[in-house]
Amino acid sequence: MSQGPFREFALPDLGEGLTEAEIVRWLVAVGDTVTVDQPVVEVETAKAVVEVPCPFAGRVGALHGAEGEVIPVGAPLIGVDTGAQGTEGGFDEPGVVVPAARPAAEDASGGSGAVLVGYGPREETRRRGRTRRLDAGGASRTTASGPRSSPAAPGRTPVVSPLVRRLAREHGLDVGLIEGTGGGGLVLRRDVEAAIVARHAAEVGAAPPRPRRAEGERIALRGAQRTMADRLSRSRREIPEATVWVDADASALLALRDDLNAADPDRPVGVLGLVARFCVLGLARFPSLNAQFDGERGELVRFSHVALGFAAQTPRGLVVPVVPDAHLLSARELSAAVRERTAAARSGTLTPGLLTGGTFTVNNYGVFGVDGSAAIINHPEVAILGMGRIVKRPWVSGDELVARPVVELTLAFDHRACDGAEAGGFLRFVADCVERPQLLLGDL
């Protein structure tokens, strides 16, 4: 059995100041054959879930880190025998890998140079092909790539399957105390099940346990949730925040939306897209709200461009996707950008570059059926506008009391960046646009 050059591929620099990532799932297993730029693992950063491709081809010899483990940038991620071509024997018995002698880690030059799927690798490399494995007789066989568990690191109890680990955890068993019957001492499901039966037999006839106070469930904040928690906490610590709000008659706004959608149903305009456009126009008149505050220098940094963020609820928690150069987009284009980024955020495919760099944020909390909210400013920005649900309420029109669709608009702002007059002027401008959007038809 010959062994080729063994190369270690480290977790690459993911950009945007990210220093670590959590392994979500392995897409290959030890013994699989990989090609250049083939995705080998899904990782979750503080920004998004991304696939990491391997920059060289060969047979997988080692996976470093278990699913759910957080590893730093630069740490070994996967080891590949680049001399293996999938035709030489590599197993002494079915399913048991004979470890190769590993030479010192080599420079990864000579591979593809790709860093992350979606940041440059060819589209065809995203397709997960089928991999070649070897059976006990050395013959090759084809298996579909899919989620795999990683081998145990040195000093850890070898447990291959996540299902085995979960089964032990659910029954309060320490896998380190279970003797594995699999190859290399691997703890298999039958080993855990046997331990459960043995413990139950030992407890028969024993006195019932004393009741204990139940502990609350501990949930670690990771990825986007942890980043958002840190950002909101910093906002509350550092920003002297104030809030203003106003009710607006949304009748004309809803009529404009319906007219625009009837004129071009293939490119629908949403209420949030219209309000976002109003905000962009307002920021040109009140530039202190399109800014960031530099606390170390005591300076307000105003921007000539608008990078519009909007709050989006996803299965991984609250995130704020960003629409760069929003000041160059129409209401129809803003609506399309919001839909596209919301879908990407919920599927976990939004790139890290579209989760940073915002200069102003809008938040449509009306989708949750609430009328109003004092939103927390998205640090380091200085303002956030929120809109509640549009619901019919009594409204005075002239001398008559009528039922009108009404929306509550709120603006939370950093009092270091501007005073109440400028914040109130901006909010009043947006409310006037909601009530009389026909005045801005040339700007929409």
CATH hierarchy class name of the largest domain:
Alpha Beta
| Helix and strand run | EEEEEEEEEEEEHHHEHHEEEEEEHEEEEH
Q: Count of helical segments?
A: 7
The biggest beta sheet reads:
7 strands, mixed
Mean pLDDT over the residues: 79
Q: Based on CA inertia axes, which overall geometry fits?
A: elongated
Number of strands: 23
Share in β-strands: 25-35%
User: CATH topology of the largest domain, which one?
Assistant: Chloramphenicol Acetyltransferase
Describe this structure in words.
It holds the Pfam family Biotin_lipoyl. By secondary structure, this protein is of the alpha+beta class. The protein folds into 3 domains: 6-144, OB fold (Dihydrolipoamide Acetyltransferase, E2P), CATH 2.40.50; 162-203, Dihydrolipoamide Transferase, CATH 4.10.320; 223-443, Chloramphenicol Acetyltransferase (2-Layer Sandwich). It has helices spanning 162-170, 189-203, 223-238, 251-263, 271-285, 331-347, 420-435; strands at 6-10, 20-26, 33-34, 39-44, 49-53, 58-63, 70-72, 76-81, 91-93, 96-97, 130-134, 140-144, 241-249, 291-294, 299-302, 308-310, 312-314, 317-319, 322-323, 360-364, 383-387, 391-397, 400-414. The strands form 7 sheets. Strands 13, 16, 19, 20, 21, 22 and 23 form a 7-stranded mixed β-sheet that branches. Helix 1 packs parallel to helix 2 (189-203), helix 5 packs across helix 6 and helix 5 (271-285) crosses helix 7 (420-435). The relative contact order is 0.12. The model is unreliable at 86-155 (pLDDT under 50).
